[in-house]
Amino acid sequence: MRPTLIVGSIAFDTLHLSGKCHSKVLGGAATYASLAAAHFAPVQLVGVVGHDFPDSAIKLLKDRGVDLAGLEVARGETFHWEGRYSEDLSSRETLRTDLNVFADFKPKIPQSFRAAPYVMLGNIDPVLQHEVLDQIDKPAFVLADTMNLWIDIRHSELQKLCARIDMLVLNDEEARQLTDEKNLVLAAKALQALGPKHVCIKKGEHGALLFQGDEVFALPALPLSKVVDPTGAGDTFAGALIGYLARGGDLSSTSLRRALVHGSVLASFCVEGVGTERLAAASPSEIHGRVEGFRQLTSF
Amino acid sequence: MRPTLIVGSIAFDTLHLSGKCHSKVLGGAATYASLAAAHFAPVQLVGVVGHDFPDSAIKLLKDRGVDLAGLEVARGETFHWEGRYSEDLSSRETLRTDLNVFADFKPKIPQSFRAAPYVMLGNIDPVLQHEVLDQIDKPAFVLADTMNLWIDIRHSELQKLCARIDMLVLNDEEARQLTDEKNLVLAAKALQALGPKHVCIKKGEHGALLFQGDEVFALPALPLSKVVDPTGAGDTFAGALIGYLARGGDLSSTSLRRALVHGSVLASFCVEGVGTERLAAASPSEIHGRVEGFRQLTSF
């Protein structure tokens, strides 16, 4: 079994959704990504939590096959984010961000994790993403996620990171922002020129694009009649994507395309429940069913 | 050969694109749709132009296999629209609309067109769309296009029209506006409940969705690195779609899906040139090549 190393934030999210408040739900990019990847391969999680992190969350992660040897329990409280979604869930406002122990997060990769062949650098400071790569052996595949904040304040570190990774995952606005190029095809080419062989541009409800060499794959999203909570959908997508690659150990173009399909399938489960509940509960047959659903959705 | 009857606007467009002004280019929804449909089947065009409509445009349409027995030449000038696109072509502002002879357009369907098995009701007043249907025999397939203006001021006429057509084509915002439903899957179901068996929701650069019974088809758009002029892309899409159906005479679910692919292919040519120039010039082998391109783009 090829394990996947996932580094990133672990948090509690307080979510205001359709007039209801869900207080301190388990969240964080690395949590979503780990629970998604764990459907396909063993996960080695590196992150930091506070003393308030409950045994129930530890148990949930362990039960799913997530190795917590890299989970640092620091003095203080766990990262907490609070946000309110608009009625139609198309936008959200941050009400509160308490970085807490995450403010001083310095990823320490346990010896037992350093040979992980598949690595996901979750959306954290690119300086820390570099530090993770400095601590590990040469992996078979490194995926990195990022966000507008780092494009703004860590532009050159992020560009340098691109030369060290195999796949950059970001959304359409971030791709435009990072390259200063409005056309997504040209933006993707500019990103590939920085280093990564694979560039995946997420477009939310409009699906995703995968650029590999001169080849493009376009995947629509599953049209869903019920979306409950979009939190973590992007992290889930990336986590399932790398977990799928780890399971198969196949880095062919077709395998990468199928990895996107599996990412999108897990993201579709993610948004159907509050927090990680639906994502964690998806069964292998449910996942298989939606992969087949994608074939029916897209075939002509 | 099964002809396609197309009713709608014929115009001159003055287009401001990337700082250049293209004056009085041949345009109008029915023009784009006819030139697109004519790649696949004979077209019978019904519309009105003024005395200023040039022989060169008449010749272009006739040479493409468009029957102009339904082209009314009225006293006055041809409909003229002038607009300026934003730098990235994502939005446009109308600078001038001279309806001219189009203001009094009353579609008169020639006897020789009344048995047309495939009919496209271009984006005109739903009252006129009803009048077209009143004048013709029962066709095998009727497609109707519409726009936000008619949803605002002809809401009930448009709803009643839905009961008389086989396919409604509209964009995502129009689908939400017409049904007062934010979720596109639920909006499509609400539209199907009004009558049309097939509902096609266009999403511009994000592709299109086709709802048929309980089945959904999602088609991404071809990622293009060069877009010159988006004018008429939606009309081209719908025109090629119905032209493709007319050519095959097959109304199966798979044939409908392939009709969307052909619509999208012709739209991709349309936006690569100013006005109708690239659309009209696409060769059968170029069209075939892009259909194959769609297979490579979407297969996994």
Main attributes of the structure:
homodimer; 300 residues; alpha/beta; nine-stranded mixed sheet; four-stranded mixed sheet; globular
Number of helices of chain A: 11
Strand content of chain A: 25-35%
Q: Helix content range of the residues of chain A, please?
A: 25-40%
Which protein chains are joined by the largest interface, and how many residues does each one contribute?
A-B, 37 and 36 residues
Structural class of chain A, by secondary structure, is alpha/beta
Low-confidence stretches of chain A: none
For the biggest β-sheet of chain A, the strand order reads 5-4-1-8-9-10-11-12-13
Biggest β-sheet of chain A, characterized?
9 strands, mixed
Q: What oligomeric state do these chains adopt? A: homodimer
The average pLDDT score of chain A comes to 97
Q: H/E order of the elements of chain A?
A: EEEHEHEEEEHEHHEHHEEEHHHH
Shape annotation of chain A: globular
How far from one another are the termini of chain A? Answer: 36 Å
Q: Any idea what the radius of gyration of chain A is?
A: 18 Å
Number of strands of chain A: 13
What are the SSEs and their pairings?
Two copies of one chain form a homodimer.
Chain A: E1 4-7, E2 11-17, E3 20-27, H1 29-37, E4 43-49, H2 55-63, E5 66-73, E6 79-85, E7 92-98, E8 118-121, H3 126-135, E9 141-145, H4 148-153, H5 155-162, E10 167-171, H6 172-179, H7 184-193, E11 198-202, E12 208-212, E13 215-219, H8 233-248, H9 253-270, H10 277-281, H11 284-298
Parallel strand pairs in A: 1-4, 1-8, 2-6, 4-5, 8-9, 9-10, 10-11
Antiparallel strand pairs in A: 2-3, 6-7, 11-12, 12-13
Helix pairs in contact in A: 1-8, 6-7, 8-9, 9-11
